[in-house]
Amino acid sequence: MELGFWMLVALAGAIVWRYRGETAKWRWAVMGLTLAMGLSSLRHMPLFVVAVWPAAAEGLKRFYEEISGNREAIRRAVKFYILLLVTIGALGVYELGMRGWLVVKGQMGLRYPQEAINWLRKEGSAGEVFAWYGWGGYLDWKMPERRVFIDGRMPSWRWRSPDPRFADWVFKDYLRATEKGEFGEVFSKYGVEAVLWPNGKMMEPIWWEKKILEWWKKRRGEGDKKTFFGRLEEAGWKRAYEDEVAVVYVRE
């Protein structure tokens, strides 16, 4: 989740809550619904922005009316705004500087597995390909002859399947395979014979992101958890192709 959206939720939520008695119930319902949608998928967060903006604007108007004429309250408000601007400015400068440095190093921006796709067409098996989520749309375009697992539409596709061969929510199967290590059952269900995944070097996080991930895993008791690659190799899959962008695993 983007930091900017969390800051918006915190600031807008604080001002709306401060004057909650003047906010209509239907607005609370709309804001709550759109916030839940935004937390479930980043693509829905703009709906929350649109929903919360009128209530936040009304709250700010009431806030300014409340402190008008109170020099001490105005002084505290000015200090808060200065602190907020400095914080946002510092984060912005850091992000621009860090991302710019990564661009210069050639490590910024999504890279696509063109050569790996060429290899799969020439040397790969006839079975289905299990691919990284971020490459789904590219594979829809470049490998139309294959049924892509998985692309960006699938987190939103949920239904009650009348046929046990198909999933109620295919994105859940993706998470089962990649995060819970239950890929054996998932791959058998969908006829997966090859795994197309980003090379670990390309996916290496920035040092501070890495520290946060390590802290989070330790907090959740996942410090010794095997990687997706490690689980595949342990289950007998072999690395059949590798370049600086992608790796391909196939069954032994």
From TrEMBL:
<keyword id="KW-0472">Membrane</keyword>
<keyword id="KW-0812">Transmembrane</keyword>
<feature type="transmembrane region" description="Helical">
    <location>
        <begin position="80"/>
        <end position="102"/>
    </location>
</feature>
<protein>
    <recommendedName>
        <fullName>Glycosyltransferase RgtA/B/C/D-like domain-containing protein</fullName>
    </recommendedName>
</protein>
<keyword id="KW-1133">Transmembrane helix</keyword>
